[in-house]
Write a structure and sequence with these properties.
InterPro entries: DNA_methylase_N6_adenine_CS, DUF7782, Euk-Arch_PrmC-MTase, SAM-dependent_MTases_sf, Small_mtfrase_dom. This protein is an alpha/beta fold. It contains 13 helices and 16 strands. It has 2 domains: about 325 residues, Vaccinia Virus protein VP39 (Rossmann fold), CATH 3.40.50.150; about 100 residues, Outer Surface Protein A, domain 3.
């Protein structure tokens, strides 16, 4: 059953107000966006913030559209699918976005109030293809699979001690980063073949590299091992992390409550050996069909672990389309050996530019760099042969023929040059600088 509208409930009386006065019960804001399907706007309700309340947030606070919400909606791959799951929907913003490319959306949350507000937001904006369910993590969708899972889970690492608020919108009630681990490990059982899960998360650094721990989360039987593309965007020390999330709950610095909570956070991190906390994006994908021998080790076919703290490129409609193109390029070239790749024709992506530096009076550049205008805004240093290859990738000449011509111009061995350049070509395909031929 769908949660009832908030209008059905009696508003609590505020004794501070006179008979002719009213006070808002929720925050109502306009929300405008541009995605792969075009421009749009909605009305979004959430709970009142600390400035309107005049005190710290309650533990059942339902957050509106914040920075993390905008980040995840921009990452959302817009490919049309039959079914999508918004795990931990909050005010419902991700479910609304998913409803633009999915025929059917299921939105879950452990908070009954969050589901009430999310259902209200769907009704306010005339969105009718979302079903709301109450429950923790994957419990409400036991036995079901989806083409697309989106989750901005309550990933904030919170001390499990008395006196520390556990805000439902950000705290999953588990120790450390176990909540994010649970989402990652549970995704395989709820994705259709070829289905994609996208989530945000925090992960802890102990004495080892956090990426080693994340890789361990992906270990599973061969038939359910997921592809993974994990991008770390930020790392914070325990002190900065504690300050960020104590302040997020509305507790002001230089107060006894702030100092008490700050001490609790640092004590927890020290007791568990946490040195840093990472934040980033996780893209998981269930392979299509059997691709490994039963006795083969469960190693994902796609496993990209990257640290990209730099600013993203210009992506006015979000970066989801870029992610989809990179996955498609990876899949295309994964089935090609070097000979087949050499016979292929490639083109340079439309957002790619080349920068050259010259000493005054010199004909040859001293520095060449390839820049990506959109996507992750990557930059790649070039040498003469690589620059010549990319400059000739116009979709007409095969890669191998271009390399052979460059070898003649540089008086180089063609086979050796091919062995040097083809791995770079694969990397440029993976990163979206080069595009495979149209299907």
């Amino acid at each position: 059953a769908q949660p009832g509208p908030l209008a059905d409930r009696a508003a609590p009386a505020d004794p501070a107000l006179g008979p002719a006065q009213v006070a808002p019960l929720v925050d109502l804001r306009p929300y405008s966006f541009v995605d792969a399907h075009g421009a749009g706007s909605w009305w979004i309700t959430s709970d009142l913030g600390e400035l309107a309340l005049g005190h710290p947030l309650g533990e059942n606070h339902v957050l509106g559209v914040g920075g993390a919400s905008l980040t995840l909606s921009a990452l959302m791959i817009p490919t049309a699918v039959d079914s999508a799951l918004d795990l931990g929907t909050g005010c419902g913003i991700q479910a609304l976005h998913a409803a633009r490319h999915a025929t059917r959306v299921v939105a879950t949350d452990i908070s009954e109030r969050a589901l009430e507000l999310a259902a209200l937001n769907a009704r306010l904006n005339g969105v009718e293809n979302i079903e709301f369910r109450l429950g923790s993590l994957f419990d409400p969708v036991a036995g079901e699979r989806f083409d697309h899972i989106i989750s901005n889970p309550p990933f904030v690492i919170t001390p499990r001690v008395e006196g520390v608020p556990s805000y439902e919108y950000r705290d999953g009630g588990l120790v450390g980063d176990a909540l994010v681990e649970a989402v990652v490990r549970g995704a395989a059982d709820h994705l259709t073949p070829g289905g994609v899960a996208q989530l945000l998360g925090n992960w802890e650094y102990h004495d080892d590299d956090a990426f080693d721990r994340l890789t361990g989360w992906l270990e599973s039987p061969a038939e359910t091992a997921l592809d993974a593309w994990i991008i770390e965007r930020e790392v914070q020390p325990p002190t900065g992390y504690a300050e960020t999330w104590i302040r997020d709950g509305g507790t002001r610095p230089d107060t006894p409550d702030f100092d008490r909570l700050y001490g609790a956070w640092l004590d927890d991190f020290e007791a568990r050996g946490v040195r840093q906390v990472g934040f980033g994006y996780m893209l998981l994908r269930r392979p299509t069909g059997a691709r490994r021998r039963p006795a083969a080790p469960a190693r994902p076919r796609l496993l990209r672990l990257e640290r990209l703290p730099e600013a993203l490129g210009h992506n006015p409609a979000g970066i989801g389309h870029h992610l989809a193109e990179c996955l498609a390029a990876h899949d295309w070239q994964a089935g090609l050996d070097d000979d087949a790749l050499s016979r292929s024709t490639l083109t340079v992506a439309s957002d790619v530019t080349e920068e050259r530096h010259f000493w005054p009076g010199q004909e040859d550049p001293t520095l060449m760099t390839l820049h990506q205008g959109g996507g992750f805004g990557r930059s790649v240093p070039l040498d003469t042969a690589q620059a010549a290859l990319i400059g000739a990738c116009d979709g007409e000449l095969p890669v191998g023929a271009i390399i052979d011509a460059i070898a003649q111009l540089l008086d180089a061995d063609a086979a050796a040059l091919r062995a040097e350049l083809l791995p770079r070509v694969r990397g440029l395909l993976d990163d979206g600088f080069l595009e495979p031929p149209a299907a």
